[in-house]
Amino acid sequence: MSTMLNGAKPTLIYDGKVMDAAQLERVVHGFAAALHALGLRRDDRLALWLPNCPAWLIAHLAACQLGVMTMAVNTRFRSAEVEDVLARSGASALLYWPGFLGIDFDAILADIEVDALASLRHIVVYREDGKPVPRQVSGRPAHDYHDLVRFDALAIAPEPRADDGCILFTTSGTTGVPKLALHARASIADHADIVAPAFGYADPDTTLLQALPLCGTFGHAQAMAGLRAGARLVLMSAFSLERALDLIRDYRVTRLNGADSMFEDMWASGRAGDLASVLGGGFAAFVTPDPEDFASRAEQHGLEMFGLYGMSEVQALFSRQAPGSPVEKRAHGGGRPVAPAAAFRICDPDTGALMPVRTAGELQLKGPSMMREYFGNPEATAGALTADGFLRTGDLAHDEGDGRFRYLARMGDSLRLGGFIASPAEIEAYIDRHPSVETSQVVGVDSSRGTVPVAFVLPARDAAFDADALAAHSAHGLARYKVPVRFVAVTSFPTTPSPNGEKIQRVKLREMAAELLRERSD
């Protein structure tokens, strides 16, 4: 049976244990056999609600063998978010780790509406504490992951096809709930094969620290490229700065991607010498206001850093700035697409006309790493694509004039929170469930911790405003990074007339929120 490994011989290292390529192939085939025995077939969906552990990759690779799609679920998600992605993906099976970080994932599942689990037929439980798995979870048959990976190799199964659905990533726009970007097997495999040599993952003795979450395209693209190139992947289920530095030193990690804040913390730790084996890496500027200063300071610690660009719809590591180039060029997000067949252009968002060099406009992309569709949402898919097949990214960028582009900012109101893109509309919709809320508006404000959300609330008629109650409500159903740092009661939102009626002035709300945070810090 053909696999996503394509004959490569990667090694997984996790919690001090090493899994070589032969062992990996055996358990992948075993888990594929188990999924097939449970009735999963081509185009079914397997939801993975796991952190970075071998089980995530094993289940993902096994699903790919059967043409089963993986629904990547963030472990930070709580009841409202998990309910949403399970329902809209129509997941047939769920693999989760109930005791991870001491979080009561069983209680989160129990809090999900029954209708959202209508398509769910099986639940697979992964544990590391040796505790027994119950026969049922949320009214579904439950299975022990460790039993399933010991299945005999699959004798008969459909051969995977290039156009098989492979993985669904949650993404978001400025309105509505997050969309599900579906990638085909070919887009994942082809992109990995292009990324590996471009980023040095195919070099002998390459070792990658897999600290970036596999549930997001940033971590997934790195992992798949490493697997396809036969690299060593050192997995971290939960990020700890001290542990990351230990792993980099002990396993002589050679390549490293991450957020600027992660690298800043490493330097501030006083253990920057532990990075001696790292040859360089890409970074996303989530916190630093000056990428050039960041890249210059990185050189003082022996690291040559370069800017990246990617998104769920085209995968991470879509483009990169060139190592060896001057800091003023390589420090900024964007760069040259890594795939020879990929292309970009900068257009006027209203007319579609091409913008002159170094003039800001909407970034549009095309290439082999692009998603197949927004799953279950043909209207959104059609709206995201131009007539000639370019993706409208919603990002502001300009053409550098030498085959590179520079990312400038999001054009809309999406927020980058905790390293993830979040939709204000999604946060607002959950806040509005509270009986004391008539409606709300959420905006992002820059702070020393990066961008943080602030919620402005119109209380319901005759309802008392209680900021603590709203914070607790939000924390119950939303990932922690989406919970607003302030809830502010208002009698109305600032508006301005528009051809289509009154429009809320989100810029004004952002100014108000920034002032409130400044007052609190004074």
Notes on the structure:
- There is one protein chain.
- With 522 residues, the protein is an alpha/beta fold.
- Helix content is 29%, strand content 27%.
- The chain has 15 helices and 29 strands.
- The strands form six sheets. It has a nine-stranded mixed sheet, sandwiched between helices. A nine-stranded mixed sheet has the order 13-14-15-16-17-22-21-19-18.
- Helix 6 packs across helix 7 (217-229).
- The longest helix has 17 residues, at 21-37.
Write a compact overview of the structure shown.
29% of the residues lie in helices and 27% in strands. It contains 15 helices and 29 strands.
Write the layout of secondary structure elements.
Elements: E1 11-14, E2 17-19, H1 21-37, E3 45-49, H2 54-66, E4 69-72, H3 79-89, E5 93-96, H4 105-110, E6 122-125, E7 136-137, E8 140-144, H5 145-148, E9 165-170, E10 180-184, H6 185-198, E11 207-210, H7 217-229, E12 232-235, H8 241-250, E13 258-259, H9 260-268, E14 281-284, H10 291-300, E15 305-311, E16 315-320, H11 327-330, E17 334-337, E18 343-347, E19 361-366, E20 373-374, H12 378-384, E21 391-399, E22 405-410, E23 415-417, E24 420-422, H13 424-431, E25 437-447, E26 450-459, H14 467-477, E27 486-489, E28 495-498, E29 501-504, H15 506-521
Parallel strand pairs: 1-12, 3-4, 3-5, 4-9, 5-6, 6-8, 11-12, 13-14, 14-15, 26-27
Antiparallel strand pairs: 1-2, 7-8, 9-10, 10-20, 15-16, 16-17, 17-22, 18-19, 19-21, 21-22, 23-24, 25-26, 28-29
Helix pairs in contact: 1-2, 6-7
